[in-house]
Amino acid sequence: MIWDCYLDAAASAAGLLAHEAIEAAWDTPSVLALYPVSGLAGHLAGQIFFIPRVLAMAEPSEESISILEYYQRVRWMNVGHDHEEHVRIRSGSIATATVGARELATQAATAVAELRELLPGQPAGRLVRLPSWGTWSLRLEDFVLSRMMELVVHSDDLAVSVDVPTPELPEDVTYAVIHLLSRLAVGRHGSTAMIRALSRAERAPASIAAF
User: First and final CA of the chain: distance in angstroms?
Assistant: First the structure.
């Protein structure tokens, strides 16, 4: 189940947030453009905090969309780092981190423990929506997958930022994230570019990055 994969990724991220190197580098720049380590840590923790937040809301009644359509609609996918959407996300992440490194790690670990009790009992078909989305919703399993992808990608960002090994995750987690990223990359670059990148070094494009 996607719940188990997500909880593994969330627990790993919470463990990384508790690493002493995070606090030591708290006010230094991260490898993510315009994010200090603190802001990147807040952004990573936010992918844990989002789940109980949406589950506490009333289930929306509007039409749901697929996860691929979700990524077609979100504005941050196709705008620069100085765009208001990225500024909003970055500001929220930095605000989340104002509690400090140790408290943020504690809050993340507590949220993971709560989600171990809360998430498995949720029906996969439940709809969820964040206020910033507009008048559409996602199935819970798709939202959880999107947050799991964020956890995996930004755990690597944060680990590299503070020069510690990127956490190893179960294959079920990484394969699900690779599958999602591959679908997004095909949407951005086309299937031929993807096939060449994976099979023909001499014809591989410079990048098949999903974002």
Answer: 26
Identify residue 137 by its one-letter amino acid code. Answer: S
Residues 183-205: tens digit of each pLDDT = 999 988 999 999 999 999 999 89
- Among 6, 19, 46, 11, CA closest to 164: 19
**Side-chain half-sphere of 48: how many Cα atoms within 13 Å?**
32
CA gap 139, 127 in Å, rounded: 5
- At 96-120, the pLDDT tens digits run 999 999 999 999 999 999 999 999 9
Please tell me the total number of residues recorded for the chain in this structure: 211
Nearest to 150 by CA among 28, 77, 64, 48: 48
Report the SS3 class of residue 138.
strand
What CA–CA distance (Å, rounded) separates 160 from 153? Answer: 11
Indicate the helix (H) or strand (E) that contains 128. Answer: strand 127-128
Per-residue pLDDT reduced to its tens digit, 57-68: 999 888 899 999
Q: Do the beta carbons of residue 31 and residue 159 sit within 8 Å? A: no
51 Cβ contact list (under 8 Å, min separation 6): 6, 111, 115, 119, 143, 144, 147
- What secondary structure letter does DSSP report for 177? H
- How far is 54 from 175, CA to CA, in rounded Å? 25
